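Task: sequence design from structure.
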């Protein structure tokens, strides 16, 4: 099926928006423990080079995540500084930063970890769909700190147990609302 012929500037905006949505959906998948969302970010046979923590195909990476997600810590990924350089009608190079927070535990002691990494992706548009063909990540910095969650010393939430908290698929408000 061929695409509708559009003004090249309009098509570039649509392509960049489609790529942006893939990147944001990937983060949603990581935070919600939804491996299907992450799988959708890759083309078949894509390379995932996770900066020294994993190297293989996108399919192998997602298979590993399916094993890890049920017991993975709470995570929040913020994506920023998304730069998308279109290279013709079906290729793009992207660079973006991830600021990732995770709540972890070691030897019964909870701690929080904040890290910043950068992803450089080669995207391809195949059969009208933009997805990652090759990802390389690098780790910019990491910071660990004692877990101290007082919710503004009780000013935000005098009873933190009453707060609605995020969770993994399907136990999150996103999926309860039909996502």
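Answer:
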């Amino acid at each position: 099926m061929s695409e509708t012929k559009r003004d090249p500037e309009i098509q570039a905006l649509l392509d960049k928006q489609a790529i942006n949505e893939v990147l944001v959906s990937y983060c949603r998948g990581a935070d919600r423990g939804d491996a299907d969302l992450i799988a959708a970010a890759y083309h078949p046979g894509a390379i995932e080079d996770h900066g020294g923590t994993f190297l293989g195909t996108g399919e192998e990476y997602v298979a590993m995540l399916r094993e890890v997600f049920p017991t993975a810590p709470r995570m929040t990924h913020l994506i920023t500084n998304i730069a998308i350089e279109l290279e013709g009608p079906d290729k793009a190079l992207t660079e973006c930063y991830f600021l990732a927070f995770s709540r972890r535990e070691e030897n019964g002691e909870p701690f929080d970890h904040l890290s910043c990494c950068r992803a450089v992706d080669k995207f391809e548009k195949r059969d009208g769909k933009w997805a990652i063909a090759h990802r390389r990540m690098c780790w910019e910095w990491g910071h660990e700190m004692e877990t101290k969650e007082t919710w503004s010393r009780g000013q935000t939430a005098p009873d933190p147990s009453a707060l609605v908290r995020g969770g993994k698929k399907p136990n999150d408000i996103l999926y309860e609302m039909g996502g």
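The mean pLDDT is 94.
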